[in-house]
Amino acid sequence: MNPIMILFSGILADSLPVLQLRAVVGEIFIHELERDGFQEYFTDRQGQAPDSPITFHANLLDHPDLPQWLRYVQRSPFQMGYLYGSATDEDVGAQTIEVTAYNRYTYEIVRQTMVISIVPSPDGEMPYQADFFVKNWNVEEVLPTDVHELFQQAVDSMWEQEGLVVVNISSALDRGGRVPLPIENRKEGVYIKVASKDPFTECLTEAKSPENRYRCKLEQQPVITCYDSFSSRFRVDWCNLTLIDLRDLNTTKLVPVYGDGILESGPEFDPPDDASDREFFYDFLLIFLLLLILGLLLCLILAYIMCCRREGV
Ligand SMILES: *[C@@H]1O[C@H](CO)[C@@H](O)[C@H](O)[C@H]1NC(C)=O
Ligand SMILES: *[C@@H]1O[C@H](CO)[C@@H](O)[C@H](O)[C@H]1NC(C)=O
What we know:
By secondary structure, this protein is an alpha+beta fold.
């Protein structure tokens, strides 16, 4: 394809119908960017090979990037892309996301606009939250509904109750993890946060007992009597389990405390002019002379070694 045509097809990009989506505060939101859906719009006009690589770019309408709560992941141009994230109370309302799909063979682009209505959680707050670190999965592998539901069931077996929700899923890479070596099928790891209205069971709190903390310090896995029931498909690092009780946090609401060095808002800063003069002459002498003497001394020693201490002299 010549550059003119590329330009042309770029301008004449098709748009998919606007999509209406819904996100609930405090629950994971996942939207799959199906390659097939976009593929049709490419092939209709061009009759291209049906399986061309596609990459996506997503941004908030009229902004360069996505809103803070939303992330995008796609492992390779031959795989599905995902928009995922967990909205907070501040995001309630409607947000318009623009997704651009690029066909990497023909450089065609197709746009899709989606309106995400973010609504407050109907169940109210889920104060008990547990953050699991699963070592043997990548983030885009747990995003399909059946997989994270499987995980939720596994958690259910330890934390027996009804209303368990997945609050957040995030890649370990976003939380300071490292890219694994490309051997032995190593995975990046993923954090999955699950929340409930009901308190933690003993089984969960057991991971945080003093003995188990001690074992974690020695880099051993803690002994938890009930974790055998956990599905073996998920290798959870029990030392990295975080249990959060939001009710404790809320009583000590985090208010930013401004330290020294931040000016109070008000008129322009007026530097004080009553500061006394400072004498720097002696500091100068000390620094300058000391180094000079030291340098001379080293010079002398070097000269002595070079001239008087050579072999044969
Ligand atoms: C979800 O996880 C991401 C990545 O760690 C974090 O930035 C974000 O604040 C989390 N959102 C919520 C609602 O916990
Ligand atoms: C797991 O937790 C330990 C401390 O509890 C921390 O040093 C380590 O970095 C964590 N590992 C990951 C992958 O988060």
